[in-house]
Amino acid sequence: MSASSSELPIIRGDALDFYLAQGYYRMQQDLFTCQFVPFAGRPYTAHWLRLTLARVQWGPEQRRLLRRNARFAATVRPFRPTDEYEELYARYRDAITFDAAPTIDDVLLGGEAHSVFNTYVIELRDNGQLIAAGIFDLGERTLAGILNFYDPTYHKFSLGKYLMLLKMDYGRRLRLDYYYPGYLVHNYPKFDYKLFACVAATEVFDSIRGRWQPFSWEAVDAHSAELFADWLPESLRNIEE
């Protein structure tokens, strides 16, 4: 006999909060962490980020983006897969210049039949047309951004960054503690957009000592050097140089 959806196991909100605070993150239906990521055959160090929502303050650039895109209708709802989402994601994937999973289902489920995460989506619509979607997981005191995708014809509106701001605003309205955007990569600027919202409210995880500290590039530089010295096998160190 198959279990009903209400009987299927789910990761409790406080458990998700705990693992996010230890530098773990969602990949499909698992939680994982890493200290190194490879690009073009070279290892780089990964540095996990979070923002303290009570300390977030929008600057001129963020306020300008919020004003500019306020005409788009935004709706938050529990995530359920639809053809409309998949069609938009396919158009987005065809336009980007980096590798991405073939479908949303591959991103979130990876072949599993159901989700163990409490997942929501922010829809953006322009006169009823879906133009962007931002998927996130809710914990008890945290929100983790998972995936943003948008109609390529709206590229000039910076909808990926806009969705990030909307997710944090939603978390603040729920009086949550932290927003987790994932990691950035030392000396690999493609991930630096995760600092867009508010650097002053951003913390970076020291995976060697197991603690969060205020974000600075100096802290990232030092942590990266320490990871390469202490964690990377001797046979791989020359690749980094």
- What is the global morphology? globular
The assigned structural class equals alpha+beta
- Give the rounded overall mean pLDDT: 92
For the secondary structure, the number of strands is: 11
Low confidence ranges? 1-6
Helix and strand succession? Answer: HEEEEHEHHEEEHEEEHH
Number of helices: 7
In percent terms, what proportion of residues is strand?
A: 25-35%
Can you give the helix content as a percent range?
25-40%
Radius of gyration over C-alpha positions, nearest whole angstrom: 18 Å
Terminal CA distance reads 57 Å
Query: Major β-sheet, in short?
Result: 9 strands, mixed
Describe the structure.
- The strands form two sheets. Strands 3, 4, 5, 6, 7, 8, 9, 10 and 11 form a nine-stranded mixed beta sheet that branches. A two-stranded antiparallel ribbon has the order 1-2.
- It has 241 residues and is of the alpha+beta class.
- Strand 8, helix 5 and strand 9 form a beta-alpha-beta unit.
- It is built from seven helices and eleven strands.
- 30% of the residues lie in helices and 29% in strands.
